[in-house]
């Protein structure tokens, strides 16, 4: 079973503002580079055969050692599709470059849960009390059974590509696991990790800087 690790780094980072967040420096290297290190470790363990980096169109990067670079699209779906078209591995791990702290053990769990036909995502139980605000009205939201979805998410490459070729660019989904479920696919899950949060807004960036300065990378 061959496997590609895809780092999605073609977003604009509008919510955080400034230079797209994946290119900011975090603990001495770019945010996306943290994911490259994780992918390289997996490759050393022979769990990953190919690393694919998806970048914005205007960027002409030096080819990072051992990774292929593809140009992303205006939507996440198009960015993922570029990556899926560029590789021919049986499986893909799709990862947000904006999550610098995905651990190698998490990736091993995802890979171990793959049957070759299912998708696998890291889920984390929601710990906070939830409220929904609609038309200025605030209502309680039941937290029971609610999970946060993280990346990397594992998919059979050809099957996901087919879904995306038909769905993108009009597709309405937050992540590929959502599309997969909408189309009747089997999704299995492993325990996510709170440190694997997505850098989205200013507070996340501060937390990421603290972790990068004081934490250790788990191997
Ligand atoms: N992404 C991508 N191509 C896109 C949109 C997003 O590769 N067209 C990537 C981002 O670079 C990021 C990941 O998908 O690593 C998760 O997306 P998100 O956190 O929404 O990042 P942005 O879209 O860049 O941020 P924002 O939504 O605030 O503009
Ligand atoms: Mg976005």
TrEMBL record:
It catalyses: 4-CDP-2-C-methyl-D-erythritol 2-phosphate = 2-C-methyl-D-erythritol 2,4-cyclic diphosphate + CMP. GO terms for molecular function: 2-C-methyl-D-erythritol 2,4-cyclodiphosphate synthase activity; cytidylyltransferase activity; metal ion binding. Keywords: Isoprene biosynthesis, Lyase, Metal-binding, Multifunctional enzyme, Nucleotidyltransferase, Transferase. Pathway: Isoprenoid biosynthesis; isopentenyl diphosphate biosynthesis via DXP pathway; isopentenyl diphosphate from 1-deoxy-D-xylulose 5-phosphate: step 4/6. GO terms for biological process: isopentenyl diphosphate biosynthetic process, methylerythritol 4-phosphate pathway; terpenoid biosynthetic process. Its EC number is 4.6.1.12. Signal peptide: none annotated. Binds 1 divalent metal cation per subunit. Its cofactor is a divalent metal cation. Involved in the biosynthesis of isopentenyl diphosphate (IPP) and dimethylallyl diphosphate (DMAPP), two major building blocks of isoprenoid compounds. Catalyzes the conversion of 4-diphosphocytidyl-2-C-methyl-D-erythritol 2-phosphate (CDP-ME2P) to 2-C-methyl-D-erythritol 2,4-cyclodiphosphate (ME-CPP) with a corresponding release of cytidine 5-monophosphate (CMP). Belongs to the IspF family. Homotrimer. This is 2-C-methyl-D-erythritol 2,4-cyclodiphosphate synthase. It comes from Pyramidobacter porci. The chain holds residues 1 to 219 of 370 of the full protein.
